[in-house]
Amino acid sequence: xxxxxxxxxxxxxxxxxxxxxxxSSGSNxxxxxxxxxxxxxxxxxxxxxxxxxxxxxxxxKSPLDPKNFVDFKLKKVEPYNHNTAKxxxxxxxxxASLLPVASCxxxxxSDPEALKDSxxxxxxxxxxxxxxxxxxxxxxxxxxxxxxxxxSKYIHELKVGDSLAIKGPIAKFDFKINQFDEVGLIGGGSGxxxxxxxxxxxxxxxxxxxxxxxxxxxETEADILLREEFDSMKKKYPDTFDVVYVVTxxxxxxxxxxxxxxxxxxxxxVASPDAGDKVKLFICGPPGQVAAVAGKKDGxxxxxxxxxxxxxxxxxxxxxxx
Length: 322
Fold this sequence. Notes:
alpha/beta; Rossmann fold; Elongation Factor Tu (Ef-tu), domain 3; globular; 2 domains
């Protein structure tokens, strides 16, 4: 509109000059038009400028609290397979969780009268998020529903808009990029999430040189969680990531490993214990699998190293059980 007004003014001035006595020189007229055009162009450029978007301040604190439960609303539920779904909770002001790797959180019902044990105490369960630590505004969990799992059944009954009380992070292992030359990951069932957290974080770093080898055991092919993500990693990072799937109840079309995680599978997949402090093995899965592969945990403590890994000559310093 401002530019149009300037054009009309210039036109009126043109008519007035046409009925007046001739100017001593045409140069004044050219200068006038140039000035009017420059003014219009200047106004157009000025009004059309887009102000610089202010930079988002660096987030220094997680919206989670390691000492207190905080309620977070369920933003979305994405069905995954026959008994598992991804539950995405909303973080305030588009903040990231900033969870350290590797760590987990614990959850309980926001309603103090819901999800209690036989003694009336609140049921609290640990879960490892599958969303990246720097993902803005979201905290996602991949949760399998167990018939005997009160917490998992409760979470699966949540509706979008409902809240869940979450406390964390709870640090498990202080993982550093290129801390090891080779890392072996042995997981079973829904115990894959802490292992996924480590490998997803490491492979996302351009300077990562560590080679990761994952052995992932499940009952059936349909039970393999995050398979699409792992297969994608294998294609994207062929020099630093590989995965071996093991299924105990295979269909006729299954072409991978069958049975359980054995000494032979471990020997042919992960680095030898001879690598010393350059190799690390992370184990997470059902208690029976953990005990068979690396010995029982002692509550929250690591417990003595046992099972297949001890037989193969690994030391307790080379093994971590989630």
